[in-house]
Write a structure and sequence with these properties.
24 helices; mainly alpha; 545 residues
Length: 545
């Protein structure tokens, strides 16, 4: 009965009928990877039991024949090797492999790369190990350490494979001529606007400078891997000559299965800007670049596939409820905790709360300064970020409701000083008097949100969620969404989010059809809703659509 009960819970966890859940370790692993117990209303312990019961069921019906269960007794040879392992980490990592070899009657002296490969395949098919390749690599490394440290251990040295190494193609700086390096550095200085004469009237931001530098290096790396002698390039003119550009782009194109990508598009645009804008090439070369860019550019209307899939999580009303109440719940957990854990949870709760009510970019969130950006008026928090600190040079102003404002105040009074007792003006303080590292802040916000709600969300995707929640409830309010997200153009808002409210539009259509089906006109319910706002006529001048 336990096996049947565990299998039935899978249906609830994955929201799929059992007939669509194959008894396959790889399928179950991927499903559990994106699953948290709260999504199905069960406990963490129950999920662990379900995983164990699913694997036991596969063994019972003969679908799992190679890997041994945890209780499996090792052979005498392998138990002897196990007893010589130096610490718990070695024992935990190597025990599954040792049980596998015991079940397959493989002696320690018979272990080689082929045995490890078969072990990896068994992990993929018959286990729910989070990352089989990582476990495989760890087994190889620890085996090699024991072979070198223990005279009684088999002397075989295993090959530790590096996966996806072909995706890395950056070359070392010493393969680039110093004169070209100097020319590239001078160009980046030009973009920074640090030159007194001849600099850009509107300098690039540091993040844009970093992207440009990376695109140039990737471009030169592609040239190198295409067989071109990069060391022969001494100047920007030679680097961006169209035949050279064509060769690099063809290599990147073929490497990406004969299609473009956002990365390829960015690289091509950077090189084109150097050739056409900075070096002012001739008209014929400019036309060649124009045609090439048209083929290489990613024509993205609406949100990307990744962002669209992320927003589908919020078609579930229960997920929306968990998401919106999560900061309050997490803050309550922080108040019941102590020490560094309490301060970290409180910080994450407040950062998430601000992103929900004031969907700003991560850099602006990271650099919120209590002295300069925050102000309380009538017990409500006013957040002001000057234009020069914002990506599109538009000033940001948010006024938080009463309850969120109280939480931010309590965080400052009770938890913030636990991070840095000395003076630090930032809401999320870091080291040396500066703000918290952006990667750490990003990681804490996303990871704790997923762990406690089962919702996958990057910090930037909070902005997409804000638009979706608004447009789902107030169909067509693109001007409101534009102001909320601080877009300069209404077209930008419409192109990004018109598709995000598709389900809301379908729901509205369904209500009209059901009203008509039951003999009512459907007008009353539709007209009681918020009006549809034409994105190019946001203030309803003239007739409604």
């Amino acid at each position: 009965m336990d096996l049947v009960s565990g299998i039935n819970v899978l249906e609830k966890c994955f929201s799929l009928p059992l007939s669509m859940i194959p008894a396959n370790g790889e399928f179950l692993r991927q499903k559990f990877k994106n699953f948290r117990h709260i999504q199905a209303g069960v406990t963490k312990r129950r999920v662990r039991n379900v995983k164990s019961l699913a694997l036991r069921s596969m063994r019972t019906v003969g679908l799992s024949t190679k890997l041994a269960p945890y209780q499996f007794t090792m052979s005498k040879d392998w138990q002897g090797r196990y007893d010589t392992l130096p610490d718990r980490y070695f024992r935990t990592t190597l025990s599954r492999f040792m049980r596998y070899c015991s079940k397959q009657s493989i002696l320690p002296s018979e272990v080689d790369n082929a045995v490890l490969e078969s072990f990896l395949e068994a992990l993929k098919i018959e286990s729910l190990t989070k990352n089989p390749k990582v476990l495989y690599q760890s087994v190889c490394r620890l085996w090699n350490k024991m072979a070198k440290a223990d005279e009684d251990w088999p002397r075989t040295i295993l090959t530790v494979k590096c996966y996806d190494i072909d995706r890395t193609y950056a070359i070392d700086a010493d393969l680039i001529h110093p004169e070209l390096q100097c020319a590239n550095d001078s160009y980046l200085k030009f973009l920074e606007g640090s030159k007194l004469f001849g600099g850009l009237p509107k300098p690039f931001r540091p993040s844009s400078i970093s992207s440009t530098k990376g695109n140039i290096h990737r471009y030169l790396s592609a040239l190198h891997h295409s067989g071109f002698d990069v060391m022969s390039l001494r100047s920007l003119e030679g680097m961006v000559a169209f035949p050279v550009f064509k060769r690099a782009m063809e290599w990147l194109w073929e490497r990406n299965n004969n299609k473009t990508s956002c990365s390829i598009s960015g690289i091509s645009w950077t090189v084109r800007c150097i050739a056409v804008k900075h070096l002012d090439c001739d008209d014929a070369t400019a036309q060649l670049y124009k045609k090439a860019i048209e083929s290489l550019r990613v024509h993205q209307i609406w949100l990307s596939v990744k962002n669209t899939a992320t927003l589908k999580q919020f078609d579930d009303k229960k997920a929306v409820f968990r998401f919106l109440n999560y900061p309050d719940d997490l803050f309550e957990v922080a108040k019941k905790s102590t020490g560094q854990k309490a301060s970290l949870l409180a910080q994450t709760a407040v950062a998430t709360l601000i992103l929900i009510f004031a969907p700003m970019r991560l850099k602006n969130l990271q650099e919120l300064n209590i002295d300069k950006n925050l102000n309380w008026i009538d017990d409500r928090l006013h957040i002001n970020i000057p234009a020069e600190k914002v990506k599109n040079n538009e000033e940001l102003n948010f006024i938080l409701p009463h309850e969120p404002s109280i939480m931010v105040r309590e965080y400052i009074d009770r938890f913030r000083s636990m991070f840095r007792p000395e003076a630090n003006p930032f809401l999320f303080p870091g080291r040396n008097g500066g703000p918290k590292d952006d990667s750490a802040l990003r990681r804490h916000i996303s990871n704790i949100l997923f762990d406690r709600t089962g919702i996958h969300l990057t910090t930037h995707q909070f902005r997409h969620v804000a638009a979706k929640l608004l447009l789902d409830d107030r169909h067509g309010h693109y001007e409101v969404a534009r102001k909320l997200l601080d877009h300069m153009s209404m077209a930008t808002t419409y192109e990004h989010y018109a598709g995000a409210e598709t389900q809301a539009a379908i729901d509205l259509y369904d209500r009209v059809i059901l009203e008509r089906k039951h003999g009512r006109s459907g007008k009353a319910e539709v007209n009681d809703d918020a009006p549809f706002l034409d994105p190019f006529n946001p203030f309803l001048k003239g007739a409604r659509r």
